[in-house]
Amino acid sequence: MNRSYPLLLTSLTVAFVILLAGAVSAQQVTIALGSEPTTLDPQLREDGGERAVNDNIYETLMVRTPDGKLVTGLAAAQPELLDPETWEVKLRPGIKFHNSEPFNADAVVYSVKRIIDPKFNSEQISFFETIKDAKKVDDLTVRITTNGPDPILLSRLYWMKMVPPGFSQDPKFAESPVGTGPYKFVHWNRGQDIVLAANKDYWGPAPRINEVKYRFVEEPGTRLAGLKAGEFDVITNLLPEFTQQVPQAIHILGLEHPIIILNADGGPTQDVRVRQALNYAVDKEALAEGLFEGFAQIAQGQLLSPSFFGFNKNVHAYPYDPDKAKALLKEAGALGATVELIGTAGRWLKDRELLEAVAAFWDAVGLKTKVRIFEFNEYLNRLFDRKTRADAIFVVSSNELLDADKSFSAYYRAGGIGSSNSDQELAALIDKARTETDFSRRQALYHQAVKRAYDQAYFVWLLNIEDIYGVSARLDWQGRVDAKILVSEMRLR
Amino acid sequence: MGRYFLKRLWHGAGVIFGVTIIVFVVTRLVGDPVKVMLPLEATVEQRAAFEKQLGLDRPIPVQFIEFMGGIARLDFGDSLWQHRPAMQIVFEKLPLTLELSFLGIGLALVLAIPLGIIAALRPGGLSDRSTVFVSLIGLSVPQFWLGLLLIVLFAVQLHWLPTSGIATPAHIILPAVTMALPALARMVMIVRSSMIDELNQQYVKTAFAKGLPFYRVVGIHALRNASLPVVTLGGWELIRAVAGYSVVVETVFAWPGLGLTAIQAIEREDLILLQAIVFTVAVTVVLINILMDVVYTIIDPRLKLA
What we know:
Structural class of chain B: mainly alpha
Mean pLDDT of chain A: 91
Low-confidence stretches of chain B: none
Largest interface: A-B, 53 and 46 residues
Number of strands of chain B: 0
Strand content of chain A: 15-25%
Structural class of chain A: alpha+beta
Largest sheet of chain A: 8 strands, mixed
Largest sheet of chain B: none
Radius of gyration of chain B: 24 Å
Order of helices and strands of chain B: HHHHHHHHHHHH
Shape of chain A: globular
Oligomer: heterodimer
Distance between the termini of chain B: 8 Å
Radius of gyration of chain A: 25 Å
Distance between the termini of chain A: 49 Å
Strand content of chain B: under 5%
């Protein structure tokens, strides 16, 4: 027993030395993620931790600017539509993977075929379902064909990471990734950390940070403590109430939209006046300030952020007008009616609080709101129940393609997995937009769809939540609307 | 002795079997990994395909037979979330949890004995009352809060120790202390009360009367007799550490052991991984119990393994 004390002291001293040695590495940045990647194969899983790391190792044909604009990445020029189902992509010359394999048409064809191969069983397949094939034309030209016209192919390509045809067949590939990006893989200690180093031969602007270390910390309080103790430079998903405590809080409009789906086919919400009243009744400004400390913006009457394709800037949020809400309810004879509002708790930031606040606003204009909070699985049963739709269902929609198609097909379109209307005219607009390859005609279709859903008040559009990162004082970084954490965009002061 | 172990193992196997069946049934009754793991906007066809891929579209009895066969081979199948063998993940994580639990409870035991004895020497005295008071606080503090408090004090304010992770030996100090404190509080109380009992026995008075030194009477004769309940509690604390505290402590300190993995498996409804974890924890608990029985016979040779 007596012997264990000197042992403890010795290990403490040793630990201090190691700790101090680790802390002074000047050009190293440490990023704390909520969960560890399950694999580092960039084409296999739908995994936030994997994506956060691999976004720095791998590249895509198309990329987005920090504010969401789609521009060329590994593609040399904007891909050309040869016919409604064929896109021709020219590639940048002279690019090499980290293991010196050349990046060329063969690599692109291989990467496309690998991810769409049913035997490969990629969890990312929902992004690429429309892709039929890829063919090499010459060493720097590839043609990608789709099943039917696919206007959002370029947004899809921004999700498809290019892998080296040779090394990706090695069983070690999933643990030691090799891409074309600004950072090279160094090592992965499972459970502990992943380290990347700057790629000195990178074809684009040289990265300014030499080394990146990823740590995995599930508990938000511990991430915050690690940032305050100087162990981390970037922490994700900072809670709004902690933004005052960190050296820098970076906030940027994200991809998440909390909305309430109203049942247009039955119950008290069948009447469009009631649905409009439910919109007028909610003070969205108060929700953004009171619950999110201002780190949320008011949704502009549509399930889209301003950076998304299809956003209609002529449609604005229903203003907060409780008197108008009361008048509309009275007109519809719905004063005192019971509205069932379904949601879940603990899945999304402030989900329960939002539900309860909305219910209070609805009650204030003369409705009886029955809030029912279910465990997530049971909640999903109700969200996906196509036979009996609840009056009102709370959901948070997330849209990584930054294009109206995904959210509208799921929630706006009659028969979609979470839709509560049978508006065939709206469905026709969405279907038509899905295969319309003309940019402005497609945009016009979405503008009409947005307007129609807004007039019919099929939803109560609440907020557009901002992503908040806690950042150390020495790091200069602005964040991105697509929530990617690209170290090549960071700089140490 | 050999027969005794066979019997205990046999009983233990029954417990483990029962626990695993309960997990199989409960996870399949309440959970649906397909819904939870796919994005909300996934279509009906995508869901069906995914269910098939996971093998969850097959009838429950078929899954059950496969599951039982898997247990026999110690192969629960691939984790739905990590796509590698669940037992491989468990064997990666278990040593970390055992390390933390043994160190934490060991620390509690090492501190509880002297503190309990000091308190017992003069019941009602200042040292006794302050020990009881501090123990009560230790018992009442929620562990996750205690962990965060220690992080704020020793990592954020004083910069003495790291907040989380496993990179260096210093990383284990705060989680081990967090693991130890509630157990320490309970153990001090037990050491104290059993020492008070022993010190009032006639043999203690006799020993003092014939002039034996203080440390021999208290530290050897009385402590040996007082230690049975302490060992019992220690074993129980160790079991709670592996099967319970580890979940909280590992989550707070980002300690990548079995407890944190269990939480992550529950969040992702990874039935397969969860089964493997519960099975392994059940086996560990049974083994710790057997180990405690052996320790009993060493402390008190009058006890026979029967």
